[in-house]
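re: ur question from the group chat, yeah i did fold both. here u go
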Amino acid sequence: SSPPLQEIISGESEEESNGVNLMEFSDEILLHILSYVPCTDLVLNVRRTCRKFATLCLDKSLTHTVLLQKDYKVNKDKVKQLMRDIGKEIYQLNMAGCYWLPSSTIDHVTRCKNLVKLNLSGCHVTSLRLSKMLSTLQHLRSLAIDVNPGFDASQLSSECKATLSRVSELKQTLYTPSYGVVPCCTSLEKLLLYFEILDRSREGFMLSGQLMVGESNVPHYQNLRVFYARLAPGYVNQEVVRLYLAVLSDRTPENLHAFLISAPGSFAETGATKNLLDSMARNVRLDALQLPKAWINGSGLLQHLKFNNPFYFSFSRCTLSGGHLIQRVINGGKDLKSLTSLNLSGCIHCLAPESLFRKAEDDIDSSILESLVVSCCNLRHLNLSAAHHHSSESIGNHLCQLLSRLKHLLSLALPVCSITDVAANVEKPPTASNLVPQTFGRKVRIGIQTYPRNLADQANQKIESSVFWALMGSLRFLETLEIIGSSFSSAMPRNEPAIRNSLPPCVRAQSVGDSEVAAISQLTYLQSLTLAQLPNILTGSGLINIGLQCQHLRTLSLANLGMMGKVVYMSALMDMLKHCKCLRDLRLEQPYFCAGAQFFQALSHCSSLQRLCIVSRSGTLQSDAVMSFMANCLEVIMCHMFMGESLTVCKNLQQSIVRSFQADRPALNVIIFPLLHEDLTEVIRDVPMRHLDEITLFKSRVAEEPPNLWW
C-alpha cells in the first residue's frame, strides 16, 4: 500500500534513509505526481503544506481541468472554496454524477468566467439556476445537463440564450418529454441525447411525447456532425426521439459523420425515418453508425450508405449475416484500419454466410471472422456477446485463435460457449457437475474431484495449450474482459419485476469452468472483469489466481457461476478479495448467496472499495456484519443489496447505515430491498443514474458507445 499523503509531502519515508527526498525532484516530476491527487485536495490541503507546493498546486496544468465527477468526498463547502480560490483558472469543469450536492452548489460555478466545457449531468439544476449560471459563461462551448420534470425553457434569460447559441457540443439527459435547451443551441455540431423518461409519472399518470407539440422552437441541426441518442426501455422515449428526428428527416446536415441510435427492443421504422436514411445515403459519408435493429433487418440500407474512415460500428441485436457484414460494410475485405470499435452483441448470424436457414447454434464460418480480423486489424474494442459462436473442429480456425491476432485489443466481450476447446468438448464425457440440473430445486449431493488452488496445478489439470489460454496469453494489454453466457439474463432488468427463472446455459458451455477462469490471470493489466453463467465452476479456484496476478483490477462482476442451488465458489472468492487492493466496484448476482460475517471480513481487505451491489434470490445477510463492514471500509459510498430477506429487515438495516454514516459520507447511497418485492421498480427509479448505469443493472459495456464520445 502507498504511504500516507502527509508522508509523501514531507518526504519522510523509507526512501529518505537512502538519500532520496521527494522535494528534490524536478518540478516536472512533481507536477506529474500531483496530477493524480484530486483537485480539491491539491487546492484546499496540499498547497498549504509548504511554499513549493503552494506554487505547484496552482500550476495551470493542474487547474485547467477540474474533475469532481467521482470525488465522493466533495461537499458544497469544498466546491464553494475551490471556486473562490481557482475559479478564474478553470477552463473545463466536470461535475457529472454529483447527485449529493444541493442545487445551490451550482451558483458557485458563476465564478468560473473562462469555462469552455461544463458537465453537470446528474446534478440538480432548475431552469432559473441554469439561466443565471449560463448568463455569466460567455466562453462556454460544451455543456452537459439533465432536463427534469418542471423544466421551463421560457425561464431562460436572453443572456443565457446568447451563451447557448455559441455552444457547439450538448449532452442532454431527458427525464421528461421536452426539447430542453436544444432549440437555443443554434451552432450545434455534436448532440448527445439520453432518454430516461418513464411511461408513468410517480403519481401513476401515463406520459406522452405529445406534451412537446406546440413548443415554440425546433432544433437547429444545420451544422451537426455527431448525432447520438440512447433510449431506455419505454414507449414514450421512442415517441420523443421521433420528434427530435423529424427535423433531421427534412434536411440532413451536410457535415454529419456520426449517426447513432441505441434503442432496446422494437423501435419500428416510419416513413420519416426512412426518408432520413435515404437522404443520408445520398448526401453524407459516415465515420460512425448505430441503428435500431428494425431499421437494418431485411433492408438494403447498408448497401447504399457511404463511409469515409469509420472508427465505430454497432449492429447490436441485428439479424445481419456475416455475408452481408463482409460485403456491405467491409466491402469484401476492404482495408478498415481506421475501425477501432465494433459491437456485434446479440448479432446471432454475424459470423455465418447467411441467416435464412441457419440455426443460432450452428457452427460459425471461420473465414468470415478471419476476413474481419484481417480487415479491422486495429480494433481496440470488440463485443461478440449474447450469441452462440461455436467453432468447428477445423484446426487453426477456432474463434480464440483468430482473435489472438488482434494485438491492439483493450476490451473484449465473448459468449461462454465460444471459448471452449471443440475437441475437448466432443471427446470428454460429461462430468458429474454437468449432469446436475441448473435449477433452484433441492440440492443434489454429488462427488467431485478436488480442484487444485494454484496456477501451476491448474495448468496440469487443463493443458495450457487450450485455445482460450493461448488467447489470454496473446492479449497482454487487455483492460476489460466480459465472458457472458449466451442465454444469461439478469434477475433484475430495467423497469420490470425481477425475473424468477433463468434459461439453462448452452450445451457447448458446459465444460467451461475453473481452468478457463485461471487462464484470465495472465492479463496483468486487467481493470474490469465480468463473468456470467459459467456452469462448470466447481471451486472457483481460478478466482484466486486472478486476485494474485491482476493487481490493477478495479471492477469485478460475477453472476450465476457453477451450480445454481449453492454458492460453490464462496471460499475461493473470499481468498481472492484479500488480494484486491485496487478493487472499487463489486457486483455479485447469485441465488442463495450468504452475505455473512466471513464474506464481509474478506471484503474489508478491499481498502479501495467504493461500490457494492449484491443481487440474490433467496439470499441472506447478517445486519451486524454489514454494519461492521461499512465502519471498516471508509471509502464505500454505495451499498445496494437485493436479497431474500423480509422488508422489515431490509428497511431497518438501510436506516441504520444511513443514520450511522451519511454525515461523514455525503455521497452515500444505500438501498437494501427484497428482490422479489412488487415495489422493486419504484425503488430502482430513485437510484442515481451513475450507479444504475455503471453497476446496479447488469449489461455488456464493451463497445456500448463510441470511444471518447464525451470527455
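okk and heres the other one u asked abt
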Amino acid sequence: RKNTKRVPSFRKLLRTSQIKLDNKLKNKQYKQKSAAKKYRKEQKKLREAVRDAISRKPFPLEESKKKQVAGKWEEKEEEDALPLDMMDEDDLKLMEDLAQKASFLTRDLSSNEPVHVKKRKHESVIEKYEKVPRRLQTEPEKEVIHLLPIKDKTGIIPQAVEKPVLNIEHDEEEDTEDTEEAEDFNEEPVPILTPEEMAAQRRQKLQERKMHIAALASAILSEPDSNIKKLKELRAMLMEQDPNVAVIVRKLVMVSLMEIFKDIVPSYKIRPLTETEKATKVKKETQKLREFEEGLVSQYKFYLGNLEQTIKDWKQRKLKKSNVISLKAYKGLAEVAVKCLCELLVALPHFNFHNNIIVLIVPLMNDPSKMISELCVEAVKKLFKQDKLGCASLGVVKVISGLVRGRNYDVRPEVLKVFLHLRIKEVELQKDSEDIAPKKKFMTYKEKRKNLSRMQRKWKKAEEKLERELLEAEASESKEKKLKLHTETLNIVFLTYFRILKKAQKSPLLPAVLEGLAKFAHLINVEFFDDLLIVLHSLIASGDLSYRESLHCILSAFHILSGQGDVLNIDPMKFYTHLYKTLFSLHAGGTNEDIGIVLQCLDVMFAKRRKQVSQQRALAFLKRLSILALHVLPNSSVGILATNRVFMQTFPKMDLLLDNESQGSGVYLPELEEPEHCNAQNTVLWELHLLQRHYHPAVQKFASHLIAGAPTEGSGALPLDLS
C-alpha cells in the first residue's frame, strides 16, 4: 500500500503553536529515554543471570547418587503411567497449556537462567550461612567496630574491625617496625642542590613571577574596562605558596595593586545600583561601564580585606596552616600593607571604603612600632593639608577622638599633634571659596552692540543671567558646606582638648592639648576665654607640670589674649612672673629643645603686646636673658641675643643698660621673682663684654652689635646672613 501521508504545508506549520512543538519534542525525548531505560534493565538482568551461574557450585557425590535413584524411580513411575491416548481431550489440553507456562514443574533444571531473582538471592544467603561450620565460644568475645561497607561487582561487602587491645610493648615494637619501614621507603635519592644552584633557581622563579605581575598590570592599565577580571588573577598572587619567593612576591603584588587602583579609580564615588536600575534596559556602553564599576569596587574591597588580614595576622602573631611565611617575615609584609593603606588614604579620599581605611590607619598611629606609627601619622598629616573641603578630615578627627576616649587618654602625643595640621583658618577658607567659584568675565554692552545682532544680544543676556545665578548658588553652597564641616570638626577637637584638661591633667597629652589651644585660640568662643585662663593658671600654680608643659600653658594663654581676647580686660601679670621666675630652669646642655618655645613666648608676650608692657618689665627680662645667654650653648645664645636685639629696637630707653654713668634709685635685685620690682634700671649689661670673647663667631658678632646699641645700619649693623 502506498504511503498517503502528506507533508504539512508551510501555512499549516505557521498555524502550529510553539507549545505544541515543544510538547512533541518532549514526547520524543521521553520515548528515547524509556527505550534506553528498558535496554539497561534487560542488560542488568542478563548480567545477574551470568553472575548467578558462575557462583553456583557443583553438587556433592551423595546428592548426585540420590538424584540418579530418584531418576530411576521416576522412570518406573512413567512406565506405570497411563498412555496419552487414554486421556480425555480436556485433560490433554490443560496439560499442554501448563507446559507452555514457565513454572517450577515444567522448568528445565539444566537451564542457568534464574526465574525468581529476589527469592533466589535470599535463599543463597541463607544457604551460605548454613554452610559455615559452628564452633564453641571458648575465647572471650571481642568488640567489633563496624565500618562503611564496600560495593563491588559481586555486591555489597560489609566491613568491620576488631577493637584493638592496649598492649604497650607490642605497640612499641610495631612503631619501631613502622619507622624502619619508613626509613627504608625514604631512602630514595633526593637531588641535593648547592647554595649557588638554589640561589639561581630562586632568582629564576622570582623573575618569572615579576614578569607575570608586570604583564597583568600592563594589560589592566592599557584597557581597564575589558581586563578588569585580571585584577582577580593578580590578587590571587597575594596567596603565593612557594616558600622561596612568597614574601617578595606578596610585597610586589601589594604595591602593584595599590598603584593600579590609584590609576584606574574614577574621580567619583561609585554607588550600588537600585533594583529598578538593574531591571531597566540600558545601552551596551552603559552596561559595560556598570560591569567595570561593579568589578572594580568588588576587587578593591577584597584587596583592602587582604591588607587588613595581613596586619591582623602580624598583630596576633598568628601563623597560617600552610606555614609558608615565618613570623619575622610577617612584620615586613605588615609594613608594606600599612604603606599601601597610607597611600590609598591620601590618594583616594573621594572613593569608596575611605572611612574603612581611616578606621584601620588611626589605631596604628598609636602602634608600639615606631616605623608604622610614623607612617600613619605622616599620612594623616598629608590628608589634613590637602583636604580643602574638610569631609575626610572630619572622619579622621571623629575616629581619633573615639580612640583617645576609648584608650582612657593613654595614647602617644603624636596622635593629638596631627590636629595642628588641620586646614581650619578664615584666610584659607576665603581663598578656597574663591578657587571654587572663579570670577567669570562677561561681555560689556559695547562689545555686544559691536559683535552681536539684536536677537543674539537678547539670548546672551538671558544666558549670562543664568550663569551668574548658577555661580552664586555653587559658591554659596560650597562655602556653607565647608563652614558646616569645619565647625563640626573644631567642636570635636575642642571637646577632646577640654576632656583632657578636665580629666587627664597629668597625661603626657597635655603639651599637645596646649599647643592645639594656642593654634585654634582665635576660633574659640569668647565665652570660654575666662574659664580657660583660670584653668591654665591653676595648672601652672599646681606645680605638677614639667617645664615644657608650663611653657606651653603660657604660650596658649597669650595666643588666646592676642586674638579675640584683646576685648577682654584681663591682666596676665601672673604669666609674666612665672616665665621670669623659670627662665633659669632652661636646660643648658645639648637637649635645649625648650629654647624654641621660650623664644615664641617672648615674641607673643613682648613684640605683639608692646603697648601693654611696662618699661620696668622689659628691662628686667632683657637683663635676665643676657645672664642666661652666658650659660647655654651657642645656638641658644644666638637666639636669646636676637630676642634682646628685638627688645632694644622695640622698646625705648633700653640703652639705659648700656650706660655706666646713668643714676637710678635703689639697687638691682637679681634673685627677686617679680620683674616689676627688681630695679633692673640700676644695672648694666656687663655680660655682653664676656660674650664678645665667646669662642663662637656668631655670638661675638651679636654681642658687638648689641654693645653698639643694635643699629640697623652703619658699621655696628649686623651682616645680612645673621640679621
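fwiw on the second one: The radius of gyration is 50 Å. The chain has a mean pLDDT of 77. idk if thats what u expected
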